[in-house]
Amino acid sequence: MNTGTLIRRITESEGPAVAALWNRMVQEIPDGGPLPPGGEARIGRMLSTAAWHHQAFCLVAVLDGDVIGYVNGALDHGDGLLPPPMGRLECLYVVPAHRGHGTGRALARAAFAHLKACGAGTLRIDVGADDPRARAYWEGFGFEADTVTLSRYEDDAAGSGVPGVGPAGPADPAES
Prior knowledge:
- 27% of the residues lie in helices and 20% in strands.
- The protein is an alpha+beta fold.
- Strand 2 (56-63) and strand 3 form a beta hairpin.
């Protein structure tokens, strides 16, 4: 990590600056793009709330007064299947000019410590199925794949009259 980089909880006034980084992040991902009109302001308000919220959090990396990265997440009390609370990491981002110096790892470790201090026993993060770099990054911290999330997009319907189901309907796995 760059000498002089400070990792700490976001302040309410930093929400807009971190939202601008969020907008940069979504433009760097495959098939990403800028946030819709008003999106950056809404995210800024959400992140400002994370300065004091008891379940949601945002930690920032600050160097020479500038926010150069962030990690955010929340405690999740879940559906009762796992012992609560569970810690959920949402996003981790470091501006490109400051990558490769350990800032992302320091943010991740600070988030783990924050969630553990809040009582989280299990930590989770979602990673894109087509993003082996992100998967390897988080596996380096001891995360392992334990679920697969499948998504159905309504604009992919194939003429069945049922959104997301092809003309023949879903296949019965027992018939395969």
